[in-house]
Amino acid sequence: MAAAGSAEAALQVAEALETIVSRCLGPEGRQVLCTKPTGEVLLSRDGGRLLGALHLEHPAARLVVAYVSSHLRKTGDGAKTFVVFLCHLLRGLHAMTDGEQDSLASKHMQTHRRRWKNCCRWKLISQSLLTFQTHRLDYIVDRYLSRHFGSIFSSSTKERTLCRSSLESLLAAYFGGRVGRNNCDFMSRLTCDYFFKCMACERGSEEVLDLVDDYFVELSAGVTGLPVSDSRITPGLVLPRDFSVYRPADGDIRIVIVTETVQPLFSTSGSEFILHSEAQFQTSQFWIIERTKAIMKHLQSQNIKLLLSSVKQPDSVIYYAGLAGISVVECLSPEEVSLIQRITGLSPLALPHASSQDEICNTVLVKFCKPLTFRSKRYVHLGVISTSSFIPHYVVLCGPVQGLVEQHRDALHGAFKMLRQLLKDLDLNYLIQTSDQNHTSSPLVYNESDPLPEVDNGSIQRPRQDTVLRNKSKPAKTQTYSDLVVPSVELETCIPCSAPKVTPTGTYQTDETLRCFSPTKTRINGDNEPFIESNSANSTAENTRREISYENLQITKIPGKGNLLPVREKSLEIYAPQGHCFSTIPAGCVLPVGGNFEILLHYYLLHYAKKCQQSEETTVSMIIANALLGVPKILYKSKKGNCSFPQIYVRTLHALQTHQPMVSSQTGLESVAGKYQLLTSVLQCLTKILTIDLVINIKRQPQEIYDQDSEEEV
Amino acid sequence: MSRLEAKKPSLCKSEPLTSERVRATLCVLKGILTSSYGPSGRLKQVHSSFGGCVCTTSQSSALLSNLPVTHPILKILTTSMQNHVSCFRDCGLFMAILCCNLIENVQRTGLTPTTVTKLNQHLLSLCTSYLKSESCGCRILVDFSSPQTLLCLVRSIITSKPACMLTREERDHLSALILRAFLLTIPENTKDRLILGNSIIVPLKGQRVLDSCVLPGILIEMSEIQLMKILPIKKSEAFKVALFCASLSGDLSDTGEGTVVVTYGVSLENAVLEQLLSLGRQLVSDHVDLVVCQKVIHPSLKQFLSMHRVIAIDRVGVALMEPLSKVTGTQPIGSISSISPSSYGSVKDLCPAKFGFKHFLHLIPYEATICSLLLCNRNDTAWDELKLTCQTALHVLQLTIKEPCVLLGGGCTETHLAAYIRHKTCNEPESILKDDGFTQTELQLSTEAFCSALESVAGSLEHDGGEILTDMKYGHFWSAHAEAPSIVNWPDLLSRCGCGLYNSQEELHWSFLKSTRHPFVPQTYLPHEATGSADNLTLDCFTAKLSGLQVAVETANLILDLSYVIEDKN
C-alpha cells in the first residue's frame, strides 16, 4: 500500500480518533466501556487505554498509538490531549498546503514524481517544525510563559513545603479527566489524604512519591460489591493472604524474613544423597525434624513473633513455629519482600547462621500484627515501623464492579506518577540570538522546474535526500557539525576533493571555530539516491533533543541554477554571536486548568510570529498557535453564554494585552512541565508522520531483534 | 508461535444506551427480575438443553449465576449485582431492579447524562444521610434483650424466598432454628473483639423440613459399618483428640531438588511405616482417644489404633479443619514425629448419632462457637434454595450484630424514602442547586425519575394485579386485592401496610402510587411503643439495603455515563 499523502491519511485517522477521544476529554468527558476477549469489562477514560483497546490496524494510527504510549510512559498523562492536538496540527497543515497542491496538480507529471515532490515538501515542513520546536519553543516558554506560572509550594516559607489546597486542586483537575464525575472529588480527597498520611516530613515528598509509584500494586487493593464511598486508608501494610498459623502476641513483636524453606531438605540441587539403610533414612529424618525444632526454639529465644516467608514452608515448620509461639505468613511475592525491605531496612535471614546461638541481627520491630477480615476475606495486617520518610499506609478501593475499581486504581497510580514528574525540574535550553540581521528569509518554495533524476522506486527502496556539503572557499578546513534536520547527513568531498571526508558526529564545535568560518558560499549537493531503508531507523527526534544547543547551522534552500546534476545552491548560514541559555521549568510549576496553558502559548506564539521576519517560522508558529486552541475549544464546548469559548478567549487575550491579571473560571491546576512535554511529543510525532512516504506492508511475524553486541559479549 | 494470529480491530459503538437492542434486552432483564421479587414472586426455571440439574429459583444469586448475558452493559449490571450479593447475600433483586428502573426513568427525562448523574448522586446522599440519621422514620433499633426483632428479620427473609416451598409452620420452625444456630456461634465471654464462630450446614435431603435441627459441635458423617467398628465408645471424663493436618499415609516428604539414591534392598516404605507405627505407639501411650486426620491414614496405623481402642477418622477435608481446631481447642499437628504433648485437644463427649438415613459421629465441645445445622427438605432443588436462604439469614444476622438496626420491609422503606426525597427537594432545593448550577426544572425532573424508580421497586412486590397505594401520613406501602369493587372504602379493603406496622383503621388518606400527588412530610421518628409491641413485622437488613441502594445508584450512573462501548473481537 502506498501512502502517497501520508499526511492526508494521518489526518483522516487523527480525525476519527479525535471524535472518540474528545468525548472523554476534560471534566465533562464521559466513560468508555471496553470488553476484553476473556469477557471482562473495563471502564476507562484513560486515553492510552482506549487507544490500546481499539486494536487499530491503520499504519498511521499505529504510529500515533506508539508515540502516545511512549509519551505516557514518560509522563503518565495527556493521551487524549495528544490526539486532539495532533489532529488540529494536521488540519492546519492541510489547510495551508491545499492551495499549493492545486497548482501542482496542473502540471503534467508522473504520479510517482509528484508523490516524491509531496514527500519532499512534507519533509521540509517537518524540518521546519522540528527546528522550531527545538530552537524557539523553549525560548518562548522560558521568556514569556514563565511569568504566569504558579507553584504548588507555599511561597511564604523559605523551605519548599507543599501547599495542601494547591495539591487538592491539582488532583481534582487530574481526576476530573480520569474518573467518573461523581467520584472525582472523592478520589482527589482520598489521594491527598493518602499522600499526606504517608509523608513523615515535608522534605521526604519525593521519596514518598517514588516509593508509592514503584510499589503501588503492593500498597493498594480493590474490593468489589461495595459503594465507592467505602474506600479507605489504613495505616500499616496489608498482605493479601491469611496467616498459616496465628499466635496472638503482645508487646514487642520482632519479625524476620526468610526466602527459603526453614526445614533442611534431603538434598539440594546438584547434589546426591545416597541411602544405604532404612535406619539411615530414619535418623536423617529425625535430624531434619530436630533441626527445624531447634531453629524455631532459637527464633523464639530471640523474641521473634512473626516469620515472613517468600516460599511455601512444609507443614512441620508451621507446626513447630506454632508451638514456639511464632506466627507465619507464607508465599510473599518478591515485590512485597522488597517493599518491606525498603521500608524497614530488614534483609532476609540467612538460615545457616540461625542455628548458631548468637544473636540474629536481621530482625525489626513492628507495632502490631493481626488478622484483618474484609468482606469475608482474610488479610494480614502489619504495623510496620518505617525507617525512612515514608510512613506506610494501605489504600482499599471499593466499587460495584471490578472494571470501576480497576479504573480508580489506575487513576490513583497515574496521579502519583504525575506528581512524581511534577516535582522534578524540566530542563529547557535554547539559543538567544543577538543579531540575526543577515537572515535570509526563504519561504517554502519548491523548485518545480528542477528536473529530478529518475529514481527507481523499488518497493523496498525509498528516495532519500542526502545532503552533501562541499566547502569551496576553505577547502582545508575540517568541519564537524551535528546533524539535525536530515536523518543522516553525509559529508562528502566532491570533485575538487580537498577536504577530508567527515562523518557526522555529535561533537561540539566551539563557537570560535565556527565564527572564523564566515558565511561563504557553501554548496550543498542535494542528491537523491535510492536508499535502502535498513539504517534509517535512528530516531530523528532523539538525536535532535540531545543536540539542540549545539546546532549552529541553518540550511536554507534557494532555487537551483539548473546545473546538469540537480545541484541546488545553498547558503550556509551561521548565526552570529549566539548564547546558549540553559533554563528550567522549576519543579512544581502549575497553571490553572481550562485551556490556560494553550491560550497563553497561543498568544505568545502569535506575538512571536508577528516579530519574526522569516516567513517560514511565522507559518510554523501560526500553525502551532492555532492548533493549540483545539483543546480549550473542546473543553468549553458544552458551556454557554459567558463561559463559551469565544468569550473566554477574547477575555483572556484582552487581559494579556493590557497586562492585567488573568481570571480563571475554574479552580483546578495542572502541571506545566507535563503540558510542555506533551507539546514536544506531539510535534515530534508529527514530524515523523510527515517524513514517512511509503508504508510497506509485510505479512509475517514480528521477529525478535537480537542485540548483536550483547550476544558477542555472551 | 506459528499459531499466533493478527489481532482483529475492535468494534467501537457510540451512545450504547440509545440502541434499540440494548433497551429491549434491558427490558427483558428487568422483567425477569421484577417478576421474581418478593414473597409472592414467580419462580424461574433455568433450563439448559445440555443437561445438568434443574434449577428452580427466585433468588438473584442463583438466577444470575446460571444466566449468561452477552451485552457488556448487561454484564456490568449483573456483575454489579453478583458482587453485591457476594458481599451481603441479601437485597440483590432490590439493587438490580432499582438500577434498571433508574436507567429507564432517566432516559425518559431526556436530561444530559452529566446533569442526571450529578443530581442522582445528590439525591443518593440525601437518602443515605436520612437513613443513618436519628430522625429516620423507617429504621428500628434492634433490642437484643428480646429475640422478637431478630426473629421477624429471619422470618421476612425466609418468607421472601417462595422457591423454598415452605408452609407457615415450617417457616416458623426454621426461623427459630436459624436464630438458635446463630446464637450458638456467639462466644459467651469475649474480651475486646467479638469473634463469631460459624454454623455448618449439614445436608439431609428427602426428610421433612420439620426434622431439621441444630446441634452444638460438629457432626462427622461416616458409614454405618465404620460407626459399628468404633462402637461402643468407652466413656471417660474428657476425650483427648489429636488433630493432624500432615498426611499419615506413609508417603515420602519432599526430598529436595537433588537426587536421592536408594541402595538395593532398602525399603523406604517400611522405614516410613515404622515411623508411623512409632507415632501410633506414642499416641496410645499419651492416652489419645480420637485421632482425626485431614488426609489419609495408613491402613496399618488405623488397624494399630483400633486395636488399642483409639478411634481414627481420616479424610475429613480442609473445610472441616478450622471448625475442628476450634471445637477441640488445638492447632493441627503438622509432623509425624516428636509431637509435643501440648498439642492435643479435647472434647466433652463423643456419641454416635443417626439422622434420617445418615450416620454421624457427634463431637460435643466444652464451650465452642461451632454448631451444626441439619437442614432437611423434600427434594434437591428446594434444598439448594433453602440452603442459600439459610446462609443469607445467618449472614444478615451477622451484619445486624455489627450495625444494630433494621429497616421496615414490604416496600414501606422505599415509598417512605421517596416521599421524604420529594418533600426535601420541593421545599429545600437550595442545598442541591447552590453549588453546581442546575435549574429547578432539572432537579424536579430527576427527583421524579429517582423517586418513581424507588416506588416501582416497591410496586414490584405486587404480582397479582392488585392496586398499590401509599398513605399520606407515614408514606408507607399498601396493596389491595385485585378483585376490589370500583367504589371502595379503603380502610375496609386494606388491612395492614407492607411492613405491618400500621393498620388501616387509623385516620389515613391514600393515594395511588402511580398517580401524582403533592409532596408531604412523611412522619419521622418512629414511636417506641409501635416498634416494641408489633411482633409480626416485615423487616429488611439495614446494611445490605443501604449498600444495595448506593450500589444501584452508582451502577446506574456508570451505565448512563457510557459514551462508547469498545468490544474486543479477538
UniProtKB/TrEMBL annotation, chain A:
SUPFAM superfamilies, from UniProt? Answer: GroEL equatorial domain-like
User: Can you supply one Gene Ontology CC term for this chain's record?
Assistant: chaperonin-containing T-complex
Q: Which domain of life is it from?
A: Eukaryota
Which GO molecular function annotations are given, in alphabetical order? Answer: ATP binding; RNA polymerase II-specific DNA-binding transcription factor binding
Question: Which residues span the membrane?
Answer: none
Q: Which GO terms describe its biological process?
A: chaperone-mediated protein complex assembly; cone retinal bipolar cell differentiation; intracellular protein localization; negative regulation of neuron apoptotic process; neuronal action potential; non-motile cilium assembly; photoreceptor cell maintenance; regulation of protein-containing complex assembly
Protein name per the record: BBSome complex assembly protein BBS10
This chain's source organism reads Vulpes vulpes
Gene for this protein?
A: BBS10
From TrEMBL, chain B:
Q: Does the keyword Hydrolase apply?
A: no
Q: Which GO terms describe its biological process?
A: artery smooth muscle contraction; brain morphogenesis; cartilage development; cerebral cortex development; chaperone-mediated protein complex assembly; detection of mechanical stimulus involved in sensory perception of sound; face development; fat cell differentiation
Q: Where does the record say this protein resides? A: Cytoplasm, Cytoskeleton, Microtubule organizing center, Centrosome; Cytoplasm, Cytosol; Nucleus
Q: Which UniProt keywords apply?
A: ATP-binding, Chaperone, Cytoplasm, Cytoskeleton, Nucleotide-binding, Nucleus
GO cellular component term, pick one: kinociliary basal body
Which domain of life, per UniProt?
Answer: Eukaryota
Q: Name one GO molecular function term.
A: ATP binding
Q: Pfam families from the xrefs?
A: Cpn60_TCP1
Q: Its quaternary structure?
A: Component of a complex composed at least of MKKS, BBS10, BBS12, TCP1, CCT2, CCT3, CCT4, CCT5 and CCT8. Interacts with STUB1. Interacts with BBS2 (via coiled coil domain). Interacts with CCDC28B. Interacts with BBS12. Interacts with SMARCC1, a component of the SWI/SNF complexes; the interaction takes place predominantly in the cytoplasm and may modulate SMARCC1 location. Interacts with DLEC1.
Instruction: Report the family membership.
Output: Belongs to the TCP-1 chaperonin family.
What function does the entry list? Answer: Probable molecular chaperone that assists the folding of proteins upon ATP hydrolysis. Plays a role in the assembly of BBSome, a complex involved in ciliogenesis regulating transports vesicles to the cilia. May play a role in protein processing in limb, cardiac and reproductive system development. May play a role in cytokinesis.
Record's protein name: Molecular chaperone MKKS
Gene behind the chain:
MKKS
